[in-house]
Amino acid sequence: MTTVSEIFETMAYGPAPESDKPALEWLERHGRAFGLFVGGRWTKSKNGDGFDVINPATTASLARVTQAGAADVDAAVAAARKAFPAWSALSGHARARHLYALARAVQKHSRLLAVLESLDNGKSIRETRDLDIPLVARHFYHHAGWAQLAQAEFAGYEPLGVVGQIVPWNFPLLMVAWKVAPALAAGNTVVVKPAEFTPLTALCLAELAHEAGLPAGVLNVVTGDGRTGELIVNHPDVDKIAFTGSTEVGRLIRKATAGSGKKLSLELGGKSPFIVFDDADLDSVVEGVVDAIWFNQGQVCCAGSRLLVHEGIAERLVAKLRARMEKLRVGPSLDKAIDMGAIVAPVQLERIRTLVSRGVEEGATLWQPSWACPSDGYFYPPTLFTNVAPAATIAQVEIFGPVLVSMTFRTPAEAVELANNTPYGLAASVWTENINLALDVAPKIKAGVVWINCTNLFDAASGFGGYRESGFGREGGKEGMWEYVKPDRGLGLGTRGSGGAVGRPAHKARAVRSRVPSPESRVPPIDRTYKLFIGGAQVRPDQGYSRKILAPAGALIAEVAEGNRKDIRNAVEAAHAAAGWAHASGHNRGQILYYVAENLAVRAAQFAGLLDAMTAQGEAAARSEVEAAVARLFSYAAWADKYDGAVHQTPIRGVTLAMNEPIGVMGIACPDEHPLLGLVSLVAPAVAVGNTVIVIPSEARPLAAAELYTVLEASDVPAGVINIVTGAKDALAKVLAEHDDVEAVWYFGTQAAGADVERASAGNMKRTWVEWEPRDWTDSHQGEGREFLRQATQVKNIWIPYGE
Ligand code: NAI
Ligand 1 centroid to 292 CA: how many Å? Predict the structure, then answer.
């Protein structure tokens, strides 16, 4: 027998196993076979297919679950639809009570859920017990609060309806909570599909929710693989899809939902940088790295998988890391004293092995600890690569395993460049004792979350989500709630009281009374052919074609340049060159918008004449459209220094800053109604918050936009901030949606062209805002406000702990 003094010598750990008994009893109670949880009860699949769920730490089968087919998904969606009217009609307080009850149920059964999660996923009980399940409860508590406050805090908004939610296997129950809690709080009903490797805790939650009194059909759980996911995505009676998983599947979902009108949020992959400056506290850094990449076996979308180290300290840090890795313990997930558990499934283990071999082939230096992993499950050791080239496969591709790749930099600028050198933008972590440096670097990193001197911190009060190909939408906090509501337009568009409306359009076409000389005049009109407006200058179109713009009665008013693909490319380049606009102060941007408004007002009569000529809306209505455009410019000049972020109440000693950042280069295809006001209503919010834009005006009525060139020139708008390309609107919008250097596209027009835009946007996962139902742009509720500003920004949450 080993003596105490021997243990003092070796400091070897004994096993500290958590009992699996309650979880196994729960499985046995269900005969180790699960149907679907639909309409408040267990149901059997119509097609009878199923598959085994495996414990990855032992390879033993845990249970058999259902592969839901089309009829099953239909039934689940129907149950959710049936439950929707009553659930959404409940008072916020009543829904809050239900969410509170759910939080309590999770807490009461926390150990069962933690053990079940460890068995199913292979992750350590230490993590499920101390992190996953407490955060699940926290999410339900936090969102009970949003349900309580919904009527006041989301006034003018309503729930979406039935929400389809598809989650991955890395945080099985936590991802369910991230999705279900805000959806229910906002008054939606839900069909959720857990990942095929890890469905057990979602099923257990459904049962607990039922016992806690959640009405039947509000939360439905269907199991199955990607085919079941596809059925949910394509279901015609689902109003929104919320997905977390690989960028590859996210892209498929973006394409599949294009033109369907389904709201979409995607939380996708990442290759997050972990940046260490030479003044960082290296011992803290080492523990930070452990949490960044060896937490959950590195199967974390925001894992700090790329270590970027200041050159001078790289050698020292790598030596410390290797020493720490040597001490990490890999083993059975229910052992309370292990650091890392098992990889979720053989296919994932194989993927890690393949990518690690690729790293070696491409010349990087591999290092792994001297000890061997247990051989009776799917284990993989902590792994460190040095000498990695920034373009190497392992530096670019998400490995989703315990593999860290390290690179060095010399200056902060180089660190930022390396950090941003992937298509992803989920998270980043910055380590330095110099707060000035940290806060200078954080805004420059393209990521939805930045942790300063910390990593992998999550809380229900703070938004989480990506930039670029890491997806769009936020989960958590008020930011996340917006994903589950839509503006409530009352009984239909335009029926609301005027509420500050600035003049109604006259719907009947009147005789043309243009102030613009018509060809019938005895004096021949001065030829007016508008060019394009790119990089602050009026330029001829690439192809040299123009198109005639006619009055409704058929008379020629003027010609505009016919822009093409090349012109769009030039405009995108100009918009990128104007990136400094994002760093102008809000005050400065506001001043320029006021100046545009002033210059437009001076020429109001001329613009009204043009509008009247194009639309025959009558002089008074045209005049009031111009006035409305001036007022709208004033609104966004006002907003420019007022669209603030927030400081979230997260449970750290420190602050979590939620900053509204511009998205970058945006394409905007304008509506045909109100050719001036529609354009101004979209362009002004976009530039007010710091984006630069390529605008495609109404195809049939582009003259007010073209006339705007001279107003912009006279108003000190920096070159490239607003670029205007006239021509075939839908074709040009598609070019913008396909362009990899455009970060967002707004399209207001037809459903078919909107679908093309959404489909094409999947290339670089750009943000889109597509509408085919007309708005009343003259109504200030519909035509301006926070909805526009939210669409024009993305939130970055920066976590800054403080204290000694
Ligand atoms: P995945 O993206 O295929 O699976 C995520 C979820 O989507 C699962 O519930 C799955 O059943 C479902 N799904 C799959 N195909 C679908 C489709 N066509 N339509 C609708 N739903 C569909 O991820 P997978 O295959 O499990 O892992 C592959 C790689 O993806 C990993 O190696 C990792 O790199 C990445 N990944 C990233 C995650 C993240 O949180 N960022 C989470 C899971 C995986």
Answer: 21
